[in-house]
Amino acid sequence: MMVHHDIAPSNQLHVDVSRIGSSQVRNALRDTFAHLGYRYFEFDAFWPLFSTGEAQRIPTNSLICGDLSHIVRAYTSTQKHRWIAAIRETRPHILAFVRTKADHFYAPWVDDLVRTSDLRVSVCRYSQGSRISLANCVNEAVSSLDPESILDVRYSRSDHSLWIAFGDGLSGSVQPRDIGFDDPLELCLETATVAPYHSGVQVLDRGGDLVDIDGGSLRAVLDGAFAQKILLQAESSNRQIGERLKGHRLTAGVTQVQLAERSGLDQAIISKLERGKHQPRWDTIQRYANGLGVAPESLLA
Prior knowledge:
The chain has 14 helices and twelve strands. The protein has helices spanning 23-36, 46-51, 68-76, 80-90, 101-105, 110-116, 131-143, 215-222, 224-233, 238-251, 256-263, 267-274, 282-292, 296-299, and strands spanning 3-4, 13-19, 40-42, 62-67, 93-98, 121-125, 150-156, 161-166, 171-174, 187-194, 200-205, 210-214. The radius of gyration is 22 Å and the shape is elongated.
């Protein structure tokens, strides 16, 4: 059952559908949320608060759904610097629907809108009855609200690195070696794109195969506190960590020698890790995980 609040608790998902001009589309969107299992508060005060300089009253975790024409008109009627400041303060995600002639007329504004909104805008080309595409749009938009989601990835040819932008504003450059790849040419970084639902980065390797790079691995490079948290979420005992690592390796059917070849870790280090005789660093866990083709976090769970 949907609960309606004017100002809802900040730890809940808040959805504003007030700028969608069709009641049929609004109802289809509500049905989609219910079908996907999202529990949310319908919050219709976003635009009044946003436009009157009261953005601090807007709850976090807000998903703003509206026709592109309505959103662009709100955007062009707001001073650009105030729009940027309000977006950065509240960090909503704006889901713009293209469904009418008016929306198509305003389509050229999308790129500028996305840039000025710190990448917090996505476009859904809606057609009546297309439940699958609507569900995909909603899932992508909701996932982008996660502070640890990846909103953008860009390739830098000058130093062969990836620039990563996260949902909470953290951003920075990551080198291949930072995530367990010793050979800088092992990955074709110029092919990098954000993975579905903002969970990581996808890139082709030199053989043309798709490689998934977990968002947690990328974040740990840029956020030391996050990397430490991941390690602490395991167990304090090196022996317990070693048993987990060994269990994952055996489940994968990989020998220590094979893992050494795939990960670049010395076989003696792998042996010490698995026997609890070596305190693992985050980059060591990353290399071990890379050798098994799994996310580092999964080794410690």
